[in-house]
Amino acid sequence: MLTPLALAFALLVPPGMVRVGPGVYTPLYPSAPGLARIEVPAFALDVTPVTEAQFTAFVQLHPRWRRDQVASVLADARYLSHWASADGPGAQVDPAAPVVHVSWFAARAYCVARGARLPLEAEWEVAAQAGHHGPVGRDEPGWTQAILDWYARPAGQRLGPVGRRPANYWKVQDIQGLVWEWVEDFNQASAAGDRESQARFCGGAGAQSASKDDYVNFMRVAFRSALAGGSTASSLGFRCAHSVSGKDTP
Amino acid sequence: MRALLAMIVGWGGFAFAGEPPHHHHPESLPAAAAPTRGSLYQLEPALVDQLGQPVALTVFKGRPVVISMFFASCTAVCPLLISDIHRLEAALTPEERARLGVVLVSFDGARDGPAAFQAILKRHDLDATRWRLTTASADDVRLLAAALGIRYTQLPDGSYVHSAVITLLNGQGEVAGRTEGILQPVEPLIEALRTTATQGEH
Amino acid sequence: MGSKGLTLLAAALVACQGPAANPVPPGTAPAGAAPVAAAPSDTGGSAAGDLGATQGVPVKAVLTRPPLVPPPTGRKAPAKVVVELEVRELTLPISSGVEYTFWTFGGSVPGSFMRVRQGDEVEFHLRNHPDNKMPHNIDLHSVTGPGGGAASSFTAPGHESRFSFKALNQGLFVYHCATAPVGMHVGNGMYGLILVEPPEGMRPVDREYYVMQGDFYTVGKYREKGLQPFDMQKAIDENATYVLFNGSEGALTGDNALKAKVGEVVRLYIGNGGPNLVSSFHVIGEIFDRVYTEGGTRYQENVQTTLVPAGGAAYVEFRVEVPGTYILVDHSIFRAFNKGALGMLKVEGPENKTIYSGKEVDSIYLADMADSPEAIEKASAGLAAGTLTKAQQVAAGAKLFAGTCSACHQAEGQGLPTVFPPLAKSDFLMADKDRAITIVLNGLTGPVTVNGAEFNSVMPPMSQLNDDEIANILTFVRNSWGNTSDAISAAEVTAVRARTPRPPGAAH
Fold first, then answer.
1. Which of the four CATH numbers 2.10.109.10, 3.90.1580.10, 3.40.50.720, 3.20.20.210 does domain A4-243 have?
2. Would you call A62 and B16 a contact, using CB atoms and an 8 Å cutoff?
């Protein structure tokens, strides 16, 4: 039964977020035949990735996420290593740039503290696979090449501010071409890059990929499969999501 | 000042919630023994054991612990995982075995519970004083799996496909050894266990 | 016209239409008709490759940057070998004035050369530098096991993966990144060679070098300047922009040429990373005494050109008899002259006229690669900075002229009577600047009168040259051999290019 609060959530999307979907996600390496086509109900997603300034505020409120206090099981040695000090990024980092060098645990804690959550992989992919004119960007000329161009540009350069690039069909910005982004269920079992022997996986899946020419997605699948919960990287950030049904369980 | 304004605007008007409330543990941690930065005990999942009782992850703190994840209705890998741990126990001296704790957390909090766990304890002839088979919330399952490097996905039929990982923690809850896959040799974990014993626990 | 003139004419005509035939050193024995030569007994493959437990302390593998090869292992028993290889994404020159973001094993294209012995146990550490953006892994064709190691080693930036394998088969093997889409990772330069020595070691030679061919696909045209991104559609269409040895146009030319001395036996380990094209590997002026086709155990003798498959390798051995510059090419010859598949081996020592008495051939074959491209680079830099001087243009133009135009118009611009018009003191050239630009861009057929003499020949279009290159050539030509004029600017060439049509088949 819809409570008035749930109804309010259903109708209102929190500021700084937009409504994405519903949509369908076809994983490249489904974990099982029944998961070859995932229906994604509508959800709310941050328009832009979380910025350095926003994450700085979070760390100041929650000192256990300072780089000089964080548990090593929750973030690796390069966590926030680009900041001038444990207190904050310093002058060399654009405060409006997407925050990077954050682990999954840290990104998740940020979203939870804001009353939100990380997007599921299927949700994120529905948002990211959109082009400018429709929900599937691969059909638009130049869409794939533009992302491959981003892959080709070296990392380690100073990142620019979020929100400058045109939004996609869902009015989401910077979801391709700025940073890789964490998802809630990054540690799914799939036959992706780790084509391991049967012994490691209970009921493991086949290695047939769904689509041979979704190059940009292949890269993401490879990237996610190489990550651990504490991993950080110079081009890996995140944004938060919110269910629109009023209940926020992934 | 401008930076602060930028931050506030950036929040979109949201205030951050404070630190999440601590769960009530039957055995509270002594104030002096907060978990080390490398300890898995930084996580505080709310676990429920095979007797239906709340239990802390730190239930065996001070002793070496084998920790893994499974689910009761798993017919292929999990029985082999459990027998691997059993095989590890069998290779220890009686004194070592008496000190070893085993914590298994189920992916399937919705369907697993004391009945299923008691059946497993009986079927494999496991020492219920040292083994804890537990359920946790979906959130805690996600956190624990990420911390242990275990990959899992729920299938449409409600079962799970997951990797098999056995992790050894020292008395502080820090990872001392790790094996991936089933039917792996137990020697490396036994060696790790003996190394942590000689390094001393408190 | 005398016979000498006819010979010159024939040589010049051929040179203008395309590269001349390879000079066949007179006196060389014809290629042998014998089948497989001196076959050793069967090595037994991987079944016989486990040579027992490793002995001694673990050895850290010596890895070398191309074109160098690590020294022989000299081992007599299996060892545990630790290989530490780091992936780096680097922006490097692919051609003069053209940059490309390569993904490299060990900082070079091709990646580091690894050398182990059959039976060795290799403990492989693959590191992905934290400044990289992409995940990477490695597939070694020498590994027996699922994915060739790729399955075990998906590595995110800032992480390291480890796996071990036993080198069961001897031979020369390619390794490459196998992260999907594999073609893109390989197309960006992620490949190299690993040599697994036979138990008795390789036969001693005087020089060993490491050459690896690859095809590259850029959004811009060949030699279009600037940072060029990878073009996925061209890669799918197998429409290569560059075909190169060792990852760049200058990698094995000029000062970077391979070196040897007369009388030495040279072994080239030749790989082909692909991603798409098969190589027809040939060294102009040399015959391979031995070719170990596909890097295998048996050799063929007396071979001119050998195929190296994409994702494959071969090694060749030959004794160099006479001094000179030997050109390494992919004999799919447009790749050598129009896409960069060209390298050099400079051999020094006493001449032996009984084997070869002919002239050097560099200045015709090598386009502007014969000398180091310093003058050309200076002019490019000057143009970019807005400080280009006429002297810089003349210096750069001289180099470009020597490589491209002198074949027909001759080294001093004197032309060939009744065949190719002179440029020296040429009234036709100096009368109309725009016409000169148009002719260089679009070519010219039909009768012209130059300095009172009639010429009726074909000049092919040279529109594949960039605007600044044409400007430099014309500035040089119009200020040499008795000609004087102002410099011509790249902008003027751009304008002519825009308002004149290109003949069919000419480049942009």
1. 3.90.1580.10
2. yes
